[in-house]
Every structure is written in C-alpha cells, then in structure tokens.
Amino acid sequence: MLDRVLNSEATARFSRTDGRAAGWAVSPGLVGYDAAVAAMEARAAAIAEGTASELVWLLEHPPLYTAGVSAKPGDLLDTARFPVFQSGRGGQFTYHGPGQRVAYVMLDLTQRERDVRAFVAALEAWLIGALGRFNVRGEVRPGRVGVWVARNEPARDEKIAAIGVKLRRWVSFHGVSLNVEPDLSHFSGIVPCGQTEHGVTSLVDLGLPVTLDQADAALMASFAEVFGPVQAAEPPL
Q: Which is nearest to 170 in space by CA: 53, 34, 47?
C-alpha cells in the first residue's frame, strides 16, 4: 500500500483538471468475476453521482473467459474448460487468471478529457510505460486493440496486455490486463480478441522473472506519468 501520494515528475497527459489524486487499491488473492463487476459498477455509478472518488483497482481472477460486446460465438473453442462470463466491456473474448494483473479503471472523464480515443491512447501509453521499466518494447498496431511485443523466433507479434473499457456518464469501468506470469496454455480455449495470426506472451515468457508486486510498482509509476497522482485506497470489496 502507498503511504503517500505518488506524483509524476513529468506532466501527465490525461490528468484531472483539479490535480486530485486517484485512489489505488490492490486486492490480495483471487477475486470472483461477478462480485468484482458488481463492485466496480457500483463504484463507477457513485463516481458519476459525485459521492465517490476515482479508483484504480488491481486484482487477480480465478481462471475464466469473458466475452465482450463484439465476441463471436465461434471464437470460444473450448466451452467446458473454464467459466464463461458475458461482459459489457468493448472487445471480444479474453482470458483472466492467476498471474495476470487486472486493473479496473474507474476514472471521471468529465474531470479529465471527454475524448474516448484519447482515453484509450492514454491507457496504451500507461501500459507501454510500465513495460518499458522492464526494458520491454510494447507497441500498438493499427486495427488491433491492446499492447504487443515483436518476437523474432518465430517472427510474429504477441499480445502482452489487453484493453477493454466501457463508459457510462463519462465514467470509465472495466480496464486493462497485463500478462505477468499466467498459464499461457489457458488462452488456447479461445481466439484471444479475435486474433488468429498472432500469439500471446507474458513478462515471464519473455525471460523476465517479474513478480506481481514488481509489475504493480511499474504500473503505478507509469500511471502517475500519464494520468496524474495516485494515493492509497481500500479495495471496494
């Protein structure tokens, strides 16, 4: 947990107009998907009402698949492997599980910038900045969502971080996921994000023995550079 507000040395590109810090909460252990979504949506509604502050909530889920609003039924290759949840976020099928850091991002864009494309670009910049702290070159690709790493053997792009967000009353929810050390074989039960020509990777798969705590520290520092200061907060459940 933070014992102070973390400020960025650089000027944040998507910071609040009033400079107020966003809450930063980390849940230990595995958090069930339905309970997490209910808590996240309740917090986002409270932010829109002005009765709660912004929050970035970091957690891990047990193994599961989620289907975004653009998911195609044929992209679920193994219907019996893990529970499947319908999700209101953008995007297609994705996997969540232990070793993957999920960050639910509940930000009030009325206090930042009412620009959906700029917001997604800021999320990409956040993830790329976090990866850069491990000397990993994260990149975006035209026509593809998320953050990618170019591999040489075999020569192809592999996805290391996913983005799937939703806005309601200009408050964001859902968010991003970063593959730290998940079981990559679990992605084989779906066509991840509808991409059949590209692979999936993680920090550990790239040969970097990164822990979740280390990934969290990188995410926190990069978030401050892009979105502005954060301060310690309690998880919503």
A: 47
